Amino acid sequence: MKLYTFSGAPNPRKVDIYLTEKRLELETVTVSAPGSRHRARDLVARHPMAAVPVLELDDGQSLSVPDAIIEYLEELYPDPPLIGHDPWTRAVTREVTAIAERGLLDAALIASEHSSPEFRGHVDQSPALAAAVRSRFTRAIRLFDDLLLHHEWLAGPAFTIADITAFVAIEHGEDCGCAVPTDAVRMRNWLERMGARPSTRY
User: Residue 153 falls within a domain, yes or no?
Assistant: First the structure.
């Protein structure tokens, strides 16, 4: 298998942390910068979405959605389990991961597109939309802060892909006004523990 990736983007970062937690080593190809013609040409040949990450199998088939890549690898390499260990914990992990995707990661990506100078000229930026998704981000943080009252990690007592998803979202949100409120103490403690994991260190 071969993984096409790009340093600094949240979706490749999510898969990279997952691979480190699983102690999996894949052949990795770092593609050129997002938006470049070479990158698009290079990836379209492998996957029509021309997005990273792309997992290319030995038979030429490929996946380019991070959760699909992770689900596939989890089936092949179930230990240590990062999407739960039984039907209930897998369902809860997927549910919390979906909340992190929609409430945190999507919000951070939209806020970045509508506030960052690098997107000017590419996106018709809306400060009102950026403000709205920042509010969504904060609501999700407070929900997770409440969840952490009951267990150590976001989806329960075990570290999972839900934690990875929320972490990369918060990382990405730092530069676009999406931040963990100072009074979300449990989330701030969780974030400190996440930052101390070897898998999250650059």
Answer: yes
Please give the backbone phi and psi of residue 121, each rounded to the nearest 5 degrees, phi first: 90, -15
Question: How many C-beta neighbours within 10 Å does residue 24 have?
Answer: 13
Domain that holds residue 27: 2-76
The residue type at 66:
P
CATH of the domain at 9: 3.40.30.10
ω into residue 53 within 30 of 0, thus cis? yes
- Residue 113 near residue 129 (C-beta atoms within 8 A): no
Please tell me the distance from the alpha carbon of residue 163 to that of residue 117, in angstroms, as a whole number. Answer: 29
Q: What is the pTM of this model?
A: 0.90
Cis upstream peptide for 66 (omega within 30°): no
The pLDDT of residue 37: 41
Q: How many structural domains compose the chain? A: 2
